[in-house]
Amino acid sequence: MEAVLPADYAHWRQSTLGKTTERIEQDLVLAFAGPLAGKRVLDVGCGDGAYALSAAERGAQVVGVDTSREMLEAARERAASKGLEIDLREGDIQWLPFDDASFDIVLAVTVLCFVEDATEATREMARVLSPGGRIVIGELGRFSTWAAWRRLRGWLGTRTWRGARFRSAGELARLATAAGLVVERARGAIYYPPVGAIARLFVPFDSLPSRITTFGAAFIAVAARKPMSDQGATT
Asked: What whole-number distance in Å separates Cα of residue 51 and Cα of residue 29?
């Protein structure tokens, strides 16, 4: 996968399409995460800190992990500019540098699509989650116009999307279940196409199809809880 730089994220957020899309995705993930004040939160694949910052603003004790030093430095600068304290570390989702049961909530947004072994990565996230804690996985939906556009870009030579794997809500739920987690709910978002002018028309109605199906959603969030008893959990 070619490196995605902090400037790429910043450029995306400056566009109307990017700003609107990120807001809808973040609202869904944070709603699934629930109240964060006082919680120990791990943001896996934190990038330049979008979710880590939002969690810290809500009173969480946040740790962010990413493989990119450039992204971590950008996250530090963003946190400093907001006066927020976030523990940012270099690390890999498949070998998280934390003890068992270290966190109350784990967030993993658009990470598994780029991981070679998503099953092992989900098990690793479950390992560091405390019994009774919750994982929220946000991924790029398999059956959407966005996925089709990204596949086309991959075929045309964009390395970022060439190796990406898009998943359905069912596939994400099976990953969570295989890790010993209990799936609570799944929901889609971003049903409009990746075209700014069209998106502006459909954004007010984006929540309507999410009440019925995740099919057609460019973004899917799944919330799963770790049982209070570790019996039967995969480690």
From this structure: 9
